[in-house]
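fold-stage: in
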Amino acid sequence: MSEVKEKKVEDIKKEAEAAKKCPVNKALYYIEEFLAGPMCGKCFPCEMGCYETEVRLKNIIE
């Protein structure tokens, strides 16, 4: 059984910089990966702010 390594914020930032050219797409990639990985979800303002940011970035891209 393979162990899945949790991404760190620095790794996500590097991946976003390398994979995306558009600043909005970079931000969306970063937020999506942050929500999927290193965000602990313990503080409500952070959790809601991140999800709200994701929704707004997706609306901009559309």
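fold-stage: in (second)
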Amino acid sequence: MTQLTSLGITTLPLDVLSQPSIDTCASQLSSLDILVNNAGAMYAMPISDLSIPKAKELFDLNLWSYLAVTQAFLPLLLKSNGIIANHTSSASVITLPFQATYNASKAAVAVYSDTLRLELEPFGVRVVDLKSGSAASNMGTEAKVLAGKAAILPKGSLYEVAKERVERSMSGVDYQKGAVSAEVWAEGVVSELLKGRTPKVVWRGKGAWLVSYLALLPSWVTDGIWKGMTGLDVVAKAVNVAGKGK
């Protein structure tokens, strides 16, 4: 924030999980052209092992905060015929193992966003879905904060047969390889939002366009890809070997 201030940009505190903070921030603005809902965190864990309270925490941040912020700033956007850009991620259209809670939260935002687009169209407010691929961020750190520690399988997990491979997948380290910088991602998104014809969806970041095409393919094609990416194929082999040894 200090860097932004040095560039002459005015910054305001905003806790998207606090309604009083949201209301206070909104009350300090007299106009608004573009609202970007970008807050979010990751929670990776097999469905059979995940913590329901932690999953609810993730939805509070990844979904409900978007609605709360949008409602608070909507009066300003109605005056300016502005734009609402919701960061849903390319994860909203794929079924990546061990990321069900995160993907489901992003899919929920995507449906909410597209519905909002239709509802606000008569009033001149445009809504854009940002389906981003990998971009450099502190998402991994946020995931550790949410989980209380790095992603580790609980003792007795079904996936202990391939513990090291699964935990590597849960860490997200492989997905960040080759990720575009935050600056490159932001420049691309801004150029799309400022086009004469505002797009409904913006695909930016490493792998985003690939995911957009894979989402069109039948599951019998993509299942193998997702299994290989996450180590679920290693789990299947380990379970098969263990079964033969009985």
